[in-house]
Specification:
It comes from Streptosporangium pseudovulgare. The protein has about 60 residues and is an alpha+beta fold. Helices cover about 20% and strands about 30% of the residues.
């Protein structure tokens, strides 16, 4: 999730094409490509919309 005024967020609002690429280890990598769609209001799932929860990564 990004802050609404962040450069990346503004870029996605202008052009939703995006790719996420990760190289988790020596055995390969992963790439996901698609089109980002802004979700607001009642369409936001509660687990995403709750900004009061910590953004810490699971152990």
């Amino acid at each position: 999730m990004s802050a609404l005024d962040a450069v990346k967020a503004r870029d996605l609002q202008r052009d939703g094409r995006c790719a996420i690429h990760a190289h988790p280890g020596k055995d390969g990598d992963a790439k996901v490509a698609g089109v980002a769609v802004e979700v607001t209001g009642e369409d936001v799932p509660p687990q995403i919309g709750d900004s009061s929860r910590s953004a810490a990564r699971p152990g």
